[in-house]
Amino acid sequence: MDESNHWYGHSRIFAKYCGISRGQHHVPRIRGFVQHGWNYLHGFPPNDRWCTPGYPRFVWSQALARRGWSMGRRGHYVIGSPWAYLLTMEPDLGRTPVREGTIWYPFHGWEKHAVHGDHARLVDEIRSVETGPVTVCLYWLEYRNPEIRKWYEKAGFRVICHGERGSRLEAKGRDFLRRQLTELRRHRRVASNRLTSAIFYGASVGCEVAVYGDPMTLAEERPEYGGTSRRLRQWPELHGFSVDARIARDIADHELGFAHITGPEELRALFGWDTGRRVTHHRGLLVVERERCA
C-alpha cells in the first residue's frame, strides 16, 4: 500500500512482533494505511485523498478514530503506535544505571515544506533553561544543512540525527525507533519547542518533559490542526520548563495507544498477512475469524 507505512521502520517492528521475517531489505505489504506519527487531527494529514477509500486506517487512539468518523472518514482500526510494540519487544533496550542531561528535538520540516524560525534564539533559550549536558537531535534534512547545524554545534551541544525515515525497499530507516529509544533512555529530560512524537516517546520511558521556546512555523501549515493555540488549549499541562512526570506519562500512554496493543494473530489478519483469517466488527470489538473453505 502506501510508502508511509514503512517510514521509521514501523512495518519492520510490526513484522517482528508478528513473527514474520523476510530479511532486512524485504518487509510485508500492509493492506491499509498506518498512522506514522503523533497527530491530533484524525491520524492523517488534512489532504488525505491518497488514503484509498475502502482500505483500513490504522490509528493509535480512540480519539483519532472518533474524530476521523466525525470528519467523514471510515474504516478506522485502533491498534496503538509502533512505539508501543517496540517497547513490548524491547523492555530493556538502552537502559543505563544513570541518566543525565537533556535531549532536545527542534521542530522540523519535511521534504516538501521547510520550517522557518530563529535557531540562534532557540539556542539562547535552551542555554537559559537546561543545566546539564544537552544533545540536540535534528531531523535528517536539518542535520544535512550546515547553516542550521552550526548554531547548535557552536553552542557546545552534542548534535545527532536518528537517521533517515527510509522506505519499504531500503534499510535506512529500519532502526530509527531503536536508535531513538536508546538515546531517550540515556537522558534524564526530553524537550522540544512543540508537542511531538518524541515528547510522548520520552515520557513513556521515564524522561522528564519540557515544551518551551519559539514553536517556529511550517511553510503552508494547514489550519485544520488549529495551530499553537489549540495545542496550548488542549494540553496546557504539557507546556513549560518543567512538567508533572505522572501527568506526562499518563497522557503519553493514552496518545501512544498502549491500551490498544493488538495480539500477533489479530494484527496479521488486520494487515492482510494471514490470508486464512478475516477481521469483522461485533458490538464495537474486532473479531478474528478463520475463513471457511467453499
Compose a concise summary of this entry.
The chain is of the alpha/beta class and 294 residues long.
Describe the structure.
Strands 7-6-4-8-9 form a five-stranded parallel beta sheet, sandwiched between helices. A three-stranded parallel beta sheet has the order 1-2-3, covered by helices on one side. With 294 residues, the protein is of the alpha/beta class. The chain has eleven helices and twelve strands. It is globular, with a radius of gyration of 19 Å. A hairpin with a 2-residue loop joins β11 and β12.
What is the global morphology? Answer: globular
Helical stretch tally = 11
Number of separate strands: 12
- Structural classification: alpha/beta
CATH topology of the largest domain: Rossmann fold
CATH architecture of the largest domain: 3-Layer(aba) Sandwich
The largest β sheet comes out as: 5 strands, parallel
The percentage of residues in β strands lies in 5-15%
- Work out the count of structural domains: 2
Average pLDDT reading: 87
The run of helices and strands is: HEEHEHEEHEHHEHEHEEHHHEE
User: Could you tell me how far the N terminus lies from the C terminus, measured between alpha carbons in angstroms?
Assistant: 28 Å
* Proportion of residues in helical segments: 25-40%
Radius of gyration: 19 Å
CATH class membership of the largest domain: Alpha Beta
- How are the strands of the largest sheet arranged? 7-6-4-8-9
The low-confidence parts are none
